[in-house]
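Please check this protein record:
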Amino acid sequence: MLSTQLTIAKNLLLNSALSPKAKLTLLKRLYAYKKHSTGRTVIFDISHVCNGRCYFCQTGFANRNNTPCKSQSGKQFVEVDFFHKILKHLKEQNFLNDGTQLHLFNWFEPLLHPEFASIIKTATQENCLIGLSTNANVLPKLPSDFDASRVVLLIFSMCGFSQQSYDKIHQFDFEHIKHNVERIVKDFRNHGCVGEMYISFHLYQFNLHELQAAYEWAKQLHINICPTFAYINDGPRLLQFFKKELSMDYLQEVSNSLFMGMYTKIFHPTTSCSLMNNITIEMDGQCDLCCGLDEKIGNVFDMTPEKLARIHYESPTCKECMALGIPCLERGVHCNMQQLANAFHQ
């Protein structure tokens, strides 16, 4: 990954439009994305709305059933001042420091935030290492002085590389998505982002033949691609799957589209979970048990690392999740082309 970032930085440094001060800033921040050394990620949903209709996602499934998720406050987006206040608290409690990434996404779409640029500016002023993920259906409004140099991670979530695949999952216009990805990559690079960008390509039974075309397109954009086996991205239903409690209709969709059977080889009971190191915050300041479950555990301003660790240690949900082996999922969803070929050969 570092060679890619060095190439990007070299091209930007050779750009005469950059002032000496801007070039110095670029050099200082080139290695920022390598600092993620705490083993912890702060997950902060700045939005409480998503426009996707992904069948196997908790949010998308609710959208399909015309029951969109609602926050406790009834608001859809975090206010900039409140966001800043939470960042200050996270730094005071040592949840957030120089080696911690701040991911401004979880269940919802961050680029829908009407003050997206102000949110990024606030996080940048607090020297945060910013991570973003988007379905790329909307373009954010970026002012001319937008600073993307602290964005160390930008993920494009894609459900395939054809209109047919998008009709099945996201239900967006595929050409519109391609155009937006190209535009976002260009805009963020032009505004100083030298962080990692990649496509999280969700592998379904119906889109495997589209992966090569996606690789070629990503290469043209000078971004990476990470094939990821799609799974039940819905905490309660994922638990139901492994407990054999899913409805037959939902299970039929799983059988027709996903590769959940491949996970039976890697799931085993465990006594640890890397997600316990993270704090997951909704836009109204409520904390979730983890990024995979929206079980509420209290307000962020009442939370300390010690209290969060105690909650995880005592939680019946965490104990059940580890007994079922679900933390193994994190090690199993990502693959490369060779692993993909080996899996189907077996």
Q: What stands out?
A: The domain at 36-345 is CATH 3.20.20 (TIM Barrel).
